[in-house]
């Protein structure tokens, strides 16, 4: 006869923790009310003291300070706050990459501007009419160089060849003013003159060096913008329904349970965030490749490709080429006449020989090699630091934003109550979340927006790889008609352009139905919560009463 009362009271005692430390006395909900109001919600209907929590769908169903409406509001709030954390972290990376792009772009544009200004300052006194009557040829060259750097769909080698051809035609006419030289004769002259190298080795040498330098420079600059754009797009990916539930349970359920001062367990937080950011972590491999490729090209820019020396001395190379032509003017003219015949004598008066050159001016290039070295050093440091961004993001968010407890803390919020957290921490990436105890993740359905960004990283890394060995790569300028070059590796719409300012890709991310609840979420929430006292009382009667009757 003693079995019934002892068993009954034993089960009743076991039910006490569901009520909290205060035993039968309901705890005050003052802290939750204060938090709820601070989040901008009305306090109307908010309990003054704990109530039974059978109505809860996310938090454990023990005694609680949260109504169904509060739970829903907290869930929406946790979603917006976590997405804001993601965007804030992303903006920091974007700011770093954008600052690196801005610094290099300013440096490179300054190199071109100084070279062009030096040409405009020195050439009038050096060459007189040779320059003043052909000013547009020089302006067009620098304009083409800038267009190429800004990713216009032009061929740099063709642009340089066109410059030397136009310059030769103009200078040949000016140096032979006594002849009437037609366009047909100039075509013949160009064909014959090319084999005699009227400008010496300058055109070939400049083409090789300038092409490599410009290819590396524009790919390098674009790499920063593409990286920044990828972070921006990925940071805007919305949380899944399951993730929202998990974040709510992590951030606000302890408040509902009357444990506002208890911080989330570190490993618990990591599992939640790793589950939520599983797709983002899959960016890691291609992201690291992009960072490494930018570092390699940076070394090229400051090393073998010698951007400072090549770009900053273009005007000097042009002056050297013109001097070669002047020195070999008679022999070149004789060979052209031999191949194309003697042109007709012009009836117009000839220009004075003195107008072709008005004294010798020494051209100098102010080196900014030290500035480039510092730029590259700073960039390499930042790129190295960003390599592991996607896989260190969960730890960073947990420690700095969610304010999780230390790893050794055994009195932290573990998703159910205050205590230790036993499950192991999941690995990084989608495939590793198959057994995530906190977030139900469908590993068969990757996020399409993020997969698109992984492809953009691959494309940009491939371009940088080509730039590293001096191979030209295709870019499209947003100011063009976007017809492209027909290359299979042409730049996608949402990657290229002067400032990556194109509208987003027209391809819409795929959407998937929310998976059915299975041990998690709305229907399975109670399976991991503490039972209420009334429920235990009923169970005690159902289990022990038959024993009493049998005896």
TrEMBL record:
Transmembrane regions listed in the UniProt entry: none
Q: Which Pfam families match?
A: Glypican
The segments labelled Disordered in the record are: 475-526
Q: Which GO terms describe its molecular function?
A: fibroblast growth factor binding
Please note every region of biased composition (Low complexity): 481-494
What domain of life? Eukaryota
Protein's cellular compartments:
Cell membrane; Secreted, Extracellular space
Q: What's the protein's topology in the membrane?
A: Lipid-anchor; GPI-anchor
Q: What is one cellular component GO term in this UniProt entry?
A: extracellular region
Entries under PANTHER family matching the protein: GLYPICAN, GLYPICAN-1
Its name, as the record gives it, is Glypican-1
Q: Which organism is it from?
A: Scytalopus superciliaris
- Give the gene that encodes this protein: Gpc1
